[in-house]
Structure formats: C-alpha cells, structure tokens
UniProtKB/TrEMBL annotation:
One of its GO terms (biological process) is carbohydrate metabolic process. This is Beta-hexosaminidase bacterial type N-terminal domain-containing protein. It comes from the Bacteria. Keywords: Hydrolase. GO terms for molecular function: hydrolase activity. Gene3D superfamilies: Chitobiase/beta-hexosaminidase domain 2-like (3.30.379.10). SUPFAM superfamilies: beta-N-acetylhexosaminidase-like domain. The keyword Hydrolase applies.
Amino acid sequence: MTTGVMYHKDSSMIRFAASKLIDTIARIEGTVKPLDITANVISTSVIIISDKEEAASKHGITIDNSVAPEGFEIRKREGHSSLTWYILAGDEAGAMYGTLELEERLRSYGSLLAIPACVMNARFPFRAIKFNLPWSSYRKNECFELQKDTVRDLAFWQKFLDMMAQNRYNVLTLWNLHPFPYMIRPVHFPEACPFNEEELTEWKQYWTALFRMAKERGIETYMVNWNIFVSEAYREHYDPQAISDETFYHYGDSYSTDMIKQYTRECVTQLIDEYPDLTGLGISLGERMNDMSPQSRQDWVNDVYFEGMKQASRPVKFIHRAPFSVDPSITRNAIESNGFMPEPVWVEVKFNWSHAYSSSKLLLTHGGSQGMEGYWKPSPTNYKITWMVRNEDFFTLRWAQPDFIREHIVENGQDYVGGYYIGSECMIPGIDYSHLKDSDHKDWTYLFEKNWLYYMLWGRLLYEPDTPDRVFEKAIEQRHRAPIGVPLLKAYAAVCKMPMALASMYSFTWDFTLYAEGFMSTDEAEYDGGASFISLQDLLERKTFNPHYLSVSEYVDQRLEGQTTDKVSPLGLAETLEEDANRGLEWLAAIKADTPVLCCEKADIEAWAHLTYYFADKLRAAVSYELYRRTGDEAERLNAIQLLEAPHAAGHWERLIAVTKSHYVEHPLMHLGKTPFSWELYRPQVLADIAFVYGNDQTSARE
C-alpha cells in the first residue's frame, strides 16, 4: 500500500514537518509518495491544508471554527476503499504543528488507521526560549568559553531548532551585552566593528542562516541586549578616555553621550535592514543605568531604540523588559502611545526573580520590586506580560515535574499574559561538558539533548496544558525502547520537587543566592566569586521565601508557645520530602530495564532522591538543635547529631557523591567562579555541620 502525503511544497514550515511525517510513514506503514497539494488524491492519503478558503474551495472541507492561529484539526475520512487524513489549519504554523502531531501519534499508535481525530490550539501565542550567547556575554566563566565553537556551529542550531519546533516553541530570544559588532559594520562608526571584511562576512552568513532556519520552523527570532553598552572597539576608536574593559561590565552608572546615542540608534536601524528574517529586538532598562531615574531610562530607550526602529525600512516586533526600578506608568505610557510597533509588545517580567522553580505563585519580581502589578492592573491595551522562568537551580541533573508546570500555567495564565520564556543566565545548553566522555551512558552531544524531557514538558504544556502524562510516557518508552514510561516519569515527578521545596523554605534574590542541586547559596553582600554550601547555621538563620512556610525559628517559637498554624512547618516539609524520596525510589526499583543510557537517567533520579533525604534530615536536625539552644535539652542536641551523621544526612550525601561520580566529572559552574563543581567538593561542609552541633568548632559551618 502506498500512502500519499499532499502538501504545499513551497511552504518551508510545512515542508519541514512533512519530511518528518514521510519518514515515519515509510518506517511504519510502508511505501510513501510525497505529492504537491494540487495532485490527485490516492486511496490512502494525508492532506495538509493551511488555508480555510483553500479547504472549502478545493477540497470541500470546512475547518472547525474552534481552530485558532497556530491551532489545527486532525480529521479522518474513511471510504469504501479509501482512507484520507486531513490536517486542517488556518495558517502554516498550525499546519506544521498538526503534521508533527500526526507523526507523533503514528509512532505512538503504530498505524494511521488507529489514530483518533483531534482539535488542538495554542494556549499562549508566545512560547520562548531564552538563550544567552557566549560572546559579549552577560556572565563570564569557563562554562561560557566552552560553548563558543558549538554556538557558532549551524549544525548545532539545526538540531536545537528542530527540537523547538517539535516541542511547539515559537520564539528564540538571543541575549548578550552588545550584539551589533558581531552583525554589522555601522556606516558612520566603521571602526566599532573589530572584524575585517572576511570575518564579518562569516558572521553575517552565520546570522542570516540561523534566522532563516528558525523562520522555516515557525520560530520568531529576537536579539535582546542590556543597556548601555558599546563595543571595546568603539571605546578604542571613538572614546579613548572611556573606562577600561576590565571595569566596563554590566553593573554601574550610565555611560552615555550624544555620540553613543547616535551610534546605537544607527546600529538598531542597520541591524533591522540588513537581516530581513530577524523578527524583532528586545531591551533591558537597568544595566549601566544605575544613576538614571525611571523616566530618564525610558527617555533613553525612546530616543535611541524607538527612533532607530522608526528609521528602519520595515517594522519589527519588540520585547520591553520591565524596568528594575519600577514606575509602571512611565513604561506603560511609552508602549501604549508608541503607535508604530506591531502589537502586542511583549513585556518581560522575571517570575520570582532568578528562581522560578520555587513556587507557582508570583511572590517576587526582579530587584524585589514593589508595585510591579501596575504593569497588568489595569489590563494593558497593546502589550502582553511574558513571564521569564529562569533556571539557575539545576544544570547537571535532569528535571521533570509536569504538575508544577501545569499548576504554574493555571495560576498565571490571565488574559494579560502572552506567554513564557524558559532559560538560564548562567548555563548555555550546548556541548555537554559535565558528563564522562566516551561513556556508554552517553548517546547525546548537547545538553539540550540530554535534557530532552525538560524541553518537551515545557514546550508541549505551554502549547496545550491539558497534554496528558501519557504523551510524555510514550516518548520515554520510544527513547528507551522499553515499557518504562509510567514508572520513570513518576519517579522523576516525585524527587524533582526538591528544588521547589528548598526555594520555598530558603529565601533568595538574584542568580547565585540559590543553587538547589548543589545545596548552595550566598548572600549578595558576601559574594566573592563563589557560592557557599547551605550550612545548618544558614538554615537556622534564613527566613523562608514562601510566606506559607515557617522558618525553623518561627516553628520553634510556636511550638514552645503551644501555638498551631496551617502553614508548612519544617518537620511537615521533612516528612513530605522523605515520602517523595521513598516514592521516587520505589518507582525506580520497578524499572527492570538497565541499558547504559537508561542507567544514566536512573542515576539522576537517585541523586535527586538522596538530595531530598539530605534536606529532610537537615530540617529535622535544625529543629532539634534550635530546641536545644532554646531549652538546653541535651536529648535534642543528641538527636540533631544523630540526624546529621550517617546513615542519615551525611550518609545520604555520601551516596549522592557515589552516584554522581559514576557518570559526572568536575565541571565549571558559574556560581563558583574558577572552582569546578562536584558534590564531593562539599563533603567537608557536610561534616562541619556535625562538628558545629557537637560544639567542637564554634565557628560557622560556612567557614
């Protein structure tokens, strides 16, 4: 039997998805014949339609009115001796997603005949990945240097963009301090670009190909930078008295002159004109603007970016990062009165600052700003809020917790919300440098490939939050070629609650103030290039982030006073954590398959379980030690020691070291500066907690 696949071959988006479907049909059903949409229908056909008028006039098909932009309907029509599948959409993106959905269902159900019909629509119009570039980077560390060759490789981007499209992401945001010298030679400031003609040509070919590949997959591209910056070459040739490169970093007072404004404005215009496939720009009002008022910051953007965009030959979309010093009326007025940018403008807001894996409730925004709700109360007229879900909490261990994502979307999907970004400031998902090289565990090259389930969960649930776990379970089974989807996903879901539990219990602010998988933190005032282990003393002294949680001190106060509360107590959280770890390991034990690649995933789950046990025991020990300090009850101190020693907390940390050493090496970590990260690095601090409680060392466990 031959299956015909009929589609618009001049549509790059549909062509991309159809190629995936054709390959899968050939593997499962047999002979397949690619046909143009104008060809005659054969007995078994898949017809991909991206236009409602075409559906009605050429095929006599009415597309369901519920199909929205980027949505699709998969419809089956069975005749006496024919079977026709229709993928019906009102735009190319919807047709692409529908084709990818049919391909996935074919792999899941095993035959075209068995696939049920469906209608699916995008929950959010903006489903983005934040990708920090390794050159002119906001952060500086070996982990960024290691990625420069990978990120310049278009073969990497082809795989990354394929992953994005298959998981329904439709926006790629590319971030660095000052992108222009890598992309253009400004007409009136030619020396601001440090490259010769051959080098700049290579850069231009790179960007042109990247933007085109993204567009072919229905992915919008935005260049996002911080302010106010110029290139080192600019300073050398046009402002030789400027501060040195060593001190010219993201934090500081404004560096702005009329010439810098002219230079930046010209760069904006020229960038838009020279890259027609670039969708838009984004800006951040804060960096190198410390001495400026909210109004003067917005005035600078209006005068430079908005004017540069107006002078360009075409309109582009815009990301306006919510200012760090909040005055919503200023930003709202600038956006709602601009009159020249395509709508909606996307206003980016950090969700719970740098640690979105804390709570599904919005409890904190960038800078701890008060009044941020003024951006959405009252509801905006021509812009949408887009939540920045930053991950600075786990880079090495795989993470999968679908219910947290679903809960997040339900809690924060108001009408004024346009969508989400996921991504990190301190990790680039390029070459994997943390895993043992040449290991039979490793069937991937890039970090995003290793973390395929993380990206699938976020992308698919942002597109359709009702996507059932069975979709992800089937994907697991296809990856590992074993019926293990249910236990593996449930094991992940149980133990991967640990980062949210720690972040709820332990207050934080910016990037390095928490790193859950390393049980690390630092206070901003104390940061000297390396984050510190969270000691018992830290746990005793730190307030909670989530107001529905009691700190150790608050809990002991209430306990000694005989009070009760409905808040989550340290002991209640410890019990929940232990139950989660037990459940995760039980599900893990139910998996009998043991291929090397699967063993690697199971080891990550086991590592999360031991981190979870460790946190639970440390919470219990903290309560006992605080009771001892308040009452002098020696039994409580001895209980704290017992909970900190093996086989409890210290034993779990030793097992964490053992399981991670089986497949990870010491590797660079932004949070630690030049010190490579491993769990073994913190063995002395784990033992120092015991000494602290014994009283043999009266100094802080941090020291």
